[in-house]
Design brief:
Chain lengths: 149, 295, 240, 486, 629
């Protein structure tokens, strides 16, 4: 695996590391805002991977200027894609942020786990049942209560 | 087989059975008396008993089913006894095999159960519950014995079995264990010691016979004669080679009734569940061992 | 527990991604196949006429993606407006004024923003209008515009406020005009979003047909949406 | 034919102008959406006739593929477009006040149309994201704040899925240098290695978040538990299928290999068994329906794993059936939600709704002669023809699931038919529009029972046509790309 | 248009007609007429039961590439005629007074009528199936039709047990589907003939799987061990005549399919070839049958509800049918097949008597009845005939079929099976005596003093059925030609028969003689009883000797509770409910997995699931494909 020590290899390694850091943050963070930041990192890493697919060593930006007619240009498509992907990411993150505000306001907490258990309880209350996994009502689950025979 | 012959068989066979059966009752009572160091009843005592019971003034009936029960009890044994092949009268026996016969033997129990049930006396019902349980107990070894015999003789017809035994050897020689099991089962079927709890002859007031007065009791006495006769002849046909004439058949039948009786009179009475336990243990075991040899 | 299993699986993922990367043709001499890329680099000059090939791709070849992304921004802005229930910006601002004694930021910030604001506007407009020639374009310029306006509001919340109605009209207008430009082509019997008008002189401002117009729409829309988003988030943040 | 792009453009246009229109007349804004959808329905119908048995490609911006974005139009995509238009019409928020919500619904339908029509990988991603954002918004908009929390949790998992999807696209682009699905279909050998297939796995699981695929569907119960039932009907009935459409496009055109099939098969089986198991324990209608929905999406993945036109026609049939049944059930659930015990005596209260409910679940269980039976039969037979351990296992799993389903569904039914307690009122509402639609769905189901043969023939035709990469390639790609196999 | 088409059309029209008029009073008159009409249609097809060719339907369906067609063989006809007679009897029984009472009690009478005709329709559909697919569809129809009838009862227990039934039935249907799939996968054909062709081609383990799957499917319907738990409660809780109909014939559809599929197309050779010579499939099935005769019978012995007692016997009697047919010889299979008809006749009659008793007294609890013989003598007579049939005593028809089964076991040298069968019979005698004793004999309860005989609309079907029970017992030769045609059509050795029974070397059976002898015996007994001795005197029931007690109406003095204490002391400890335990543990295991999956779905951090999913998927691909260039 020698080629990991080329420019491309290092770039790819960096991009993957970035998204992995983000992913790890998504897994272990409890705070909603941190989760959002982790998501940002995760996306950034993926965007880097995407833009790297158009990378050519010694290539130049794909803009026709007077002096560069002979030079090798980088692939313009991934750049355009990433542009789109970034904006999409921004939209989603803004949306997430607004949701976080509201959730914080409602639950008074930023802890994902607290929110999850409260949410579960609320759903169960709405539906008029005991929340799953609660110890309060260990009703024996039986297929059908048959009688002894 | 012409009609006359048939008529003769149908009329005479119950008659013979009745007479032989009464002699068996007498013999039984004599044996028990001798074992108890008594003299025992006179020769016609069984007949006297029946006549006396039929002659009673008070004949209490609890309804039609009460009567029908007695009729079924007697009739079932008469039917069974007709199906038995006896010398010179084998014509009807060919119409049904040993399986039919063993089913016929269950009908009297059911009949009696119906009759007693109609009496609305709980003591009677208790007795019936015991009787039917006992039937469950003795029929298992009995059916094993029947199966073994039928398999061995390769026939379900008693006539075929007797023919086989007369050509070859007696069944008791070829299948001694099965024959012993058969004796056990027979004892249970007859309701004699030590399996007599469901008849409870000694405590008639609390047994199944509690509501049987007069000719109802007399009917049961008649039934007993047929029962003894049927059991004796059946066993003789199964294991003792039947008989070419009454002279050879009847001693075997008497022996079948007498021998176990004289041994079993020594024993005390078993409780119902013990009856099942005993009868499902020893005779069944014997029967199975013997089947292992036969098959 | 979670951490350890996360570590375990993440290391697995890293390994697998490494293996996949190793299989990619990027390391071979031929680089990526770049099929589409080559075709575009060859044809962009004639087909679209924008000097910036990325712009050709964004607005020409993949104009629909851009429309989609604008829609996403629009959707996000709508949702933010819906979710933050004190969403009417002006009302939020006035409510804030009532609750807290809302000061302008300090002297430095106020003066700086007064200074920078027109500059930012100019830069933003420049980036937008030259998107087809140089790096940059509607998105980038739109962001600059949005930052300019939202900074103004943040720094001087009392004096400056953005009219919610105005913002929504701008964003609607921009989105509608983007679509209309695309649809005009459709009515002329061509495809949706087909570049119209003459390509003009290659490399000049008035070139590349309708691309600059589209970028203008994009810039306006992005600017309006982002400004709206930022302000909405800002206003609610103070409330809670 | 080019005007079919209006399917996607018109709702978008409407979404943009609705906020402005609403400033002048909120009534007008309310009616803009339905009008647009009706126009779309007309467009679809005319296109259905025009396309006939063929296929048509729209080159957006007039750029020939593979450089430009292409919309691919055949009966499969038109079928889905029709479903989108009608389904959104059915759940249109008539009683909502905010005009922005109408915009969101319009964006949602625009994205759905795009997903159904587009033949470009990245474009699909964009529409997928648009769909996602619109969905988060619509969920989060609900009055109760728990919906917001559910939406947020959904957003996290779904965005992470989207990133996976993006990674997959990146890998594919790096490998092939193109994004056009038809173009990709011409160079399958590049993609059938480990790298290509892992890209498929990333795409499938990433899109699987929306498609209620097994490990990534924990949002289902939370979201369906907090949003109105009509919306659940939309999400479970339609949106989940659209994510599947994305997977179908990749699977059938590019990744017709056993490894890809196996992947879908395994997640499908796990989805079926886990969904049914959890649904079995459910104590309220919504939770039960949510997990049953997961299970049926699992069946869909199993069907897809058959591959080729057989897999596709089964998948279409399952999707249509599930849309009718689950959509109908969710629409009905509006009337009777809550703990099962509260439903006691429902059948006496409203025999009609109990009957409609029965029709739905009988079809769901696959009781002849309802359509569900024929689908299950055909699916199982096709799996058996393929043979092989995993496929046999899948048969076992499907049938086991049916048994479990019977157990919990009929526990519920018998509760419904019990005598009611004196004071209980099992029905939440006496009447609602969605109940009418549910009845309509049941009627459709019964009608389709009569026309099983022609419908299945029609679906098979569609599938034969749509699952054929050659037709796809020849329709989309200009002639000069057909000769060269990169 | 063949006769079969006519039959289908007629049945379907009847279905429509009854569903239209089901809530009008006229349905009472119409329904029996319609069943009579169907019966006439069947009689017109009777040639098939006397060796004629099978009828084929003139139409077939082609759906999704699966072809379906229908046929009517001697086997179908035999089961169909039983079905229709049972349906006719039930329809007559429920028309009139019973129906009125049911309606007044809040029952949905129209639905009951509808359920009956739906059952008949689906059974005819199943019986007429001509290939595996139509068989499966008919099978599902029958299951759901029975379910429809079971849920009609308003009681909670009835509904629960109906759900339990449908879960079992679905399990069976799914097993059948897997079996069909296994057959279909080989040759892409669903014809019946494929079963034997495919079976011959299969490997050993597949053969085992196929036979077991088919058997499980059919055994569940039959209520054979270990799938017997659903049946009794479900049937017992079905409303009156419905229970009679279901108990008579519904579960015998399993027998039909066993004969049709396993006996006809897999056959003795096929069963024997599976497994070792010592323990092959035939032995297994035979033992299942034998245990089915024993265990449910002794469960029945424990019941104290009349309907449930009968229903459990219905389960047990299924064992005899299978035991007979699985012997594959002429007498055994004849016995098994004949037992279907015999069982249907007396079971329907018995259920009807119990329903009649319930009609008058309102209860079927054996501890709350007694002494009704004086009030309802005809019902008593029917029950007496019925229980003699059920117990298999001469001269009723139950004896004939059981005799044939026993005879076959004897000929085949199966002592243990033989004993098992006898054990079942003896248990049956005990328990049916308990039934008749606790209901009709003993003391009449105070509250039943004014009970009268049931009206004629209920008596006629009961008496009709008991006539069938007796006649077919007296002259089994009426039925045996049908049996012989069935045997011929499914490829079994054909039984030699005459009017009175069978001819068989080494001991045949002639029921005319057997009955004659028995009645002669009874005649002699009656002679001895009535013509000798004095006249007997009727006394009141309380005029009893009770060991010093005075019997009055204040204290109940009817021995009914725990009727066989001695036996129960001994075998009571054997009633462990092992199968119930088994069923519960399956449910527990399911619960365990269910909780497991639920906890997955409750994951605190769902992204973790995404990660795990991705990593596992990629790893699997990596292992499958490697990284080769």
């Amino acid at each position: 695996m020698n080629h990991f020590f080329t420019v491309e290899g290092i770039l790819y390694f960096g991009a993957i590391s970035l998204s992995i850091i983000g992913l790890f943050g998504l897994l272990v963070s409890k705070n909603l805002f941190r989760l959002l930041l982790s998501l940002v990192l995760f996306e950034a890493g993926a965007n880097l991977v995407l833009v790297l697919s158009g990378f050519i060593r010694n290539g130049i930006a794909p803009i026709f200027l007077d002096g560069n007619s002979g030079a090798v240009m980088n692939d313009p498509v991934p750049q355009a894609l990433v542009l789109t992907a970034i904006v999409i990411g921004v939209g989603v993150q803004a949306l997430a942020l607004s949701l976080i505000f509201r959730v914080k306001k409602h639950y008074g907490s930023m802890d994902m786990r607290t929110i999850r258990s409260k949410l579960e309880r609320e759903i169960a209350e709405n539906a008029g049942v005991t929340p799953p996994g609660s110890n309060e009502a260990p009703a024996p689950v039986k297929l059908i209560e048959g009688e002894n025979s | 087989m012409n009609a006359l012959h048939l008529m003769a068989e149908l009329i005479f066979m119950p008659l013979i059975a009745f007479i032989v059966g009464m002699m068996m009752v007498l013999m039984m009572r004599k044996i028990s008396a001798r074992l108890q160091r008594r003299i025992g009843p006179p020769f016609f005592q069984p007949l006297y008993d029946i006549v006396k019971l039929y002659g009673k003034d008070t004949q209490i009936s609890h309804g039609l089913i009460h009567d029908i029960g007695i009729i079924m009890a007697v009739g079932g044994y008469i039917g069974a006894e007709i199906l038995l092949p006896v010398p010179g009268m084998e014509g009807i026996a060919a119409k049904g095999g040993v399986i039919t016969l063993s089913y016929f033997l269950m009908i009297p129990s059911l009949g009696m159960a119906l009759g007693v049930g109609q009496c609305a006396n709980p003591n009677g019902s208790i007795g019936i519950s015991r009787a039917l349980t006992a039937m469950l107990a003795y029929d298992i070894p009995f059916i094993l014995v029947v199966f073994g015999a039928a398999w061995h003789y390769q026939s379900t017809s008693l006539i075929g079995m007797i023919e086989y035994q007369q050509v070859h050897q007696w069944g008791i020689v070829e299948m001694p264990l099965l024959a012993i099991a058969g004796l056990f089962a027979l004892q249970g079927m007859l309701g004699k010691q030590p399996f007599e709890i469901y008849i409870a002859p000694a405590e008639i007031a609390t047994g199944p016979m509690v509501e049987m007065s007069g000719k109802y009791m007399g009917g049961l006495f008649v039934m007993q004669t047929f029962q003894l006769y049927t059991a004796g002849v059946l066993y003789a046909s199964l294991f003792l080679g039947g008989g070419t004439s009454f002279l050879t058949l009847l001693p075997k039948a008497f022996l079948v009734v007498a021998l176990p009786m004289s041994i079993a009179f020594m024993f005390p009475r078993y409780k119902t569940e013990d009856v099942i336990r005993i009868l499902w243990k020893w005779p069944v075991m014997l029967g199975l061992i013997s089947l292992a040899f036969i098959l | 527990m979670t951490k350890y299993s996360a570590l375990l699986f993440i290391s697995g993922l890293v390994f697998l991604l490494m293996v996949i990367t190793g299989l990619l043709p990027i390391f071979s001499d031929s680089h990526t196949p770049m099929l589409v890329g080559k075709a575009i680099l060859e044809g962009a000059k004639d087909q679209v006429g924008a000097a910036n090939v990325v712009t050709s791709v964004v607005l020409g070849y993949r104009g629909l993606d851009t429309l989609g992304e604008l829609s996403i921004l629009f959707a996000a802005a709508s949702v933010v407006g819906l979710v933050l229930t004190k969403s009417s910006f002006n009302k939020a601002a006035s409510a804030n004024n009532d609750k807290h004694d809302h000061h302008d930021s300090g002297f430095v910030a106020v003066n700086a923003i007064d200074l920078i604001f027109p500059l930012l506007l100019v830069v933003g407009m420049y980036i937008i209008t030259h998107g087809h020639l140089t790096p940059g374009g509607g998105f980038q310029g739109g962001v600059v515009l949005a930052v300019a306006f939202s900074m103004l509001v943040i720094v001087r919340p009392r004096r400056a406020s953005i009219n919610h109605g105005m913002v929504s009209i701008i964003e609607s207008f921009a989105g509608v005009s983007f679509i209309l430009i695309g649809v005009i082509a459709l009515f002329k019997g061509q495809s949706f979003l087909q570049p119209l008008l003459s390509h003009g002189e290659f490399g000049s401002l008035w070139s590349a047909g309708t691309l600059p117009l589209l970028y203008l729409a994009v810039g306006l829309k992005v600017g309006a949406e982002l400004a709206g988003l930022l302000l909405a988030l800002n206003s609610d943040e103070v409330v809670d | 034919m080019n005007s079919l792009v209006l399917l996607m453009v018109l709702p978008l246009f409407a979404a943009f102008i609705i906020p402005v229109v609403a400033k002048f007349s909120s009534k007008l804004a309310l009616f803009t959406g339905p009008v647009v959808l009706c126009i779309n329905l007309l467009l679809i119908m005319s296109a259905w006739v025009k396309v006939g048995s063929g296929a048509h490609a729209i080159f957006l911006g007039g750029f020939l593929p593979p450089v430009g974005i292409v919309f691919y139009i055949d009966h499969f995509s038109l079928l889905f477009s029709g479903l989108i238009a009608s389904m959104v019409l059915i759940v249109w928020p008539w009683d909502a006040k905010e005009s922005r919500l109408y915009s969101l619904y319009m964006l949602l339908s625009a994205a759905s149309f795009g997903l159904a029509l587009s033949a470009d990988l990245f474009n699909l991603y964009v529409f997928y994201e648009l769909l996602a954002v619109a969905t988060y918004g619509i969920i989060a908009k609900q009055k109760n704040s728990s919906a917001t929390a559910a939406s947020l949790r959904y957003l996290f998992i779904s965005s992470a899925g989207s990133v996976m999807l993006l990674l997959g696209i990146a890998i594919i682009y790096t490998l092939t240098g193109t994004l056009n699905i038809a173009h990709l279909a011409t160079m399958t050998e590049n993609l059938h290695g480990f790298a290509g297939l892992s890209a498929f796995a990333l795409i499938a699981i990433g899109a699987g978040v929306k498609a209620e695929m097994f490990p990534v569907n924990s949002w289902v119960a939370e979201v369906y538990g907090t949003i109105p039932r009509q919306l659940s009907a939309l999400l479970a009935g339609l949106i989940s299928k659209l994510a599947v459409v994305l997977i179908i496009k990749m699977l059938l055109m590019v990744f017709q290999v056993q490894a890809a099939f196996d992947l879908l098969l395994v997640v499908g089986m796990l989805g079926v068994i886990s969904g049914e198991m959890v649904a079995w324990r459910a104590k309220d209608m919504i939770r039960m329906l949510s997990f049953s929905s997961i299970a049926h999406l699992g069946v869909l993945f199993i069907a897809l794993s058959i591959g080729g036109s057989k897999g596709l026609w089964l998948a279409i049939a399952i999707m249509l059936h599930h849309l009718l049944v689950k959509g109908g059930l969710f629409l009905m659930a509006d009337r009777f939600s809550g703990h099962f015990d509260k439903l006691k005596g429902l059948a006496h209260h409203s025999p009609m709704s109990a009957a409609v409910f029965l029709v739905f679940i009988l079809s769901l269980l696959g009781v002849p002669p309802l359509p569900g039976f024929w689908i299950k039969m055909a699916l199982v037979m096709n799996l058996a023809e393929l043979g092989g351990g995993l496929y046999y296992l899948a048969i076992g799993v499907i049938l086991l699931a049916t048994i479990i389903e019977t157990a919990y569904m009929f526990n519920l039914v018998q509760t419904m038919y019990l005598k009611a307690d004196a004071d209980s009122t099992p029905l939440n509402k006496r009447y609602s529009a969605s109940y009418t639609f549910a009845k309509l769905f049941a009627l459709l189901l019964l009608v389709s029972m009569v026309f099983v043969s022609p419908i299945s023939k029609r679906l098979k035709d569609i599938a034969n046509h749509s699952a054929n990469p050659q037709i796809y390639i020849h329709t989309v790609l200009p002639a000069r790309y057909l000769g060269e196999k990169s | 248009m063949t006769l079969l088409d006519h039959l289908f059309i007629v049945v379907f029209s009847c279905l429509i007609a009854i569903s239209v008029v089901r809530n009008l009073p006229i349905v009472d008159k119409l329904a029996p007429v319609l069943y009579g009409l169907i019966l006439i249609m069947l009689v017109r097809m009777a040639s098939v039961a006397y060796g004629g060719d099978a009828y084929l339907s003139s139409f077939s369906l082609d759906l999704l590439g699966f072809k379906m067609h229908w046929q009517f063989t001697a086997l179908s006809w035999y089961f169909a005629i039983i079905t229709l007679v049972a349906a006719l009897a039930s329809a007559v029984f429920m028309s009139g007074d019973w129906g009125r009472q049911y309606r007044e009690g809040g029952g949905n009478y129209g639905m009951l009528q509808l359920a009956l005709i739906v059952n008949v329709f689906s059974m005819i559909l199943l019986l007429g199936s001509g290939d595996l697919l139509s068989l499966f569809i008919g099978w599902e129809f029958v299951s759901w039709a029975s379910f429809l009838m079971m849920v009609l009862s308003p009681s909670k227990l009835a509904k629960k047990s109906a759900v339990k039934y449908i879960v079992y039935a679905m399990t069976g249907a799914m097993a059948l589907m897997v079996a069909i799939v296994m057959i279909y996968a080989v040759n892409d054909s669903l014809e019946f003939e494929q079963i034997s062709i495919v079976f011959a081609q299969m490997s050993g383990s597949s053969q085992v799987a196929l036979v077991l799957l088919l058997f499980v499917a059919f055994a569940i319907k039959m209520g054979l061990l270990p799938f017997h738990l659903w049946q009794a409660v479900a049937y017992a809780e079905t409303p009156g005549p419905g229970a009679a109909f279901l108990g008579a014939i519904s579960s015998r559809m399993g027998m039909f399919t066993i004969v049709l599929v396993i006996v006809q197309f897999i056959g003795l050779g096929g069963l024997k070839s599976v497994g070792t010579s010592f323990a092959n499939m035939q032995t297994l099935l035979a033992w299942v049958a034998a245990l089915t005769t024993i265990i449910p019978t002794y469960i029945a012995l424990q019941q104290h509800d009349a309907k449930r007692l009968l229903a459990w016997h219905g389960v047990g009697q299924g064992g005899y049918m299978l035991l007979g047919i699985i012997m594959f010889d002429s007498i055994g299979s004849a016995g098994g097949l004949m037992h279907v008809l015999n069982h249907a006749s007396y079971q329907a009659a018995l259920f009807m008597t119990v329903v009649a008793v319930m009609y008058r007294t309102g209860t079927s609890d054996l501890n709350k009845l007694g002494g009704l013989v004086t009030q309802m003598p005809l019902t008593f007579l029917v029950m007496l005939i019925g229980i003699i049939g059920l117990a298999g005593l001469p001269p009723m028809n139950g004896f004939v079929s059981k005799w044939l089964v026993y005879r076959s076991l004897l000929v085949n040298g199966q002592p243990l099976l033989f004993v098992a069968a006898v054990l079942g019979t003896l248990g049956t005698i005990l328990s049916v005596y308990k039934l008749i004793h606790n209901t009709f004999l003993g003391q009449l309860r105070l509250e039943h003093q004014n009970v009268r005989e049931v009206p004629w609309s209920m008596l006629v079907p009961m008496l009709g059925l008991s006539v069938i029970v007796f006649i077919t017992g007296f002259m089994p030769g009426l039925i045996l030609p049908w049996i012989a045609s069935v045997q011929e059509s499914v490829g079994l050795p054909v039984i030699a028969h005459h009017l009175g029974g069978i001819e068989y070397a080494k001991g045949g059976l002639d029921m005319i003689w057997v009955s004659g002898i028995l009645f002669y015996g009874f005649g002699v007994g009656a002679l001895i009883f009535y013509f000798l001795g004095g006249k007997s005197k009727r006394v009141h029931q309380y005029d009893n000797y009770a060991g010093g007690h005075f019997l009055t109406s204040d204290v109940r003095y009817h021995y009914s509770n725990n009727f066989y204490p001695g036996l129960m002391h001994l075998i009571g400890t054997w009633y462990r409910g092992s199968f119930q335990w088994l069923e519960n543990s399956i449910v527990s295991v399911m619960s365990f997995f269910s909780v497991f999956f639920e906890n997955i779905y409750r994951a605190k951090q769902p992204v973790m699931l995404l990660l795990i999913g991705v990593v596992l998927a990629l790893l699997a691909l990596y292992r499958n494909l490697g990284v080769g260039a």
